[in-house]
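Side project, low priority. Logging it here so it doesn't get lost.
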Amino acid sequence: MPADSTARLRAFARAPLSRRAIVATVLATLVLGAIAVEVVPGSVTWRIRWLRANHTPSADPAWDAPVDGAALRRAAAFVHRGDTYALWWPSSIPQYGHDLSAAGYLYLTPARPAADPRTATWILSYKAGRLVPPGVRAGEKHELAPGIFLVRTLRR
């Protein structure tokens, strides 16, 4: 490459881009990225396509088991910072273990989940049949929805 063309190339590389050139570059990058997501197969692009195609009809996340998000939002009014909570659900629906744990983090934060229900300040009893787990003494009870209760525990 002749010295003259190298100097011109360096001068071009240092020249500031106009606003129009920057906008055109960003738009072209976005369009090419959107096309790549549609065309390129792979573990990342199918997840993006899945997110685009799956919407929930409400403000709640897409639960794997039917979860009453409105009841859990009502529970948040009683549970405060410094409290702990435990979740209690029927063992016949194991998916509740995943969905209710996620709901607890989503709606009951900044309270912390308790590893042992006997040490929790609150028990969220979700259609469990029995109000609280064995070994827990129930205090005040708030019915959030049919079969869904928030129960303050009594310490021994």
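Brief comment: Helices lie at 3-14, 19-39, 43-53, 69-75, 95-107.
Revisit when time allows.
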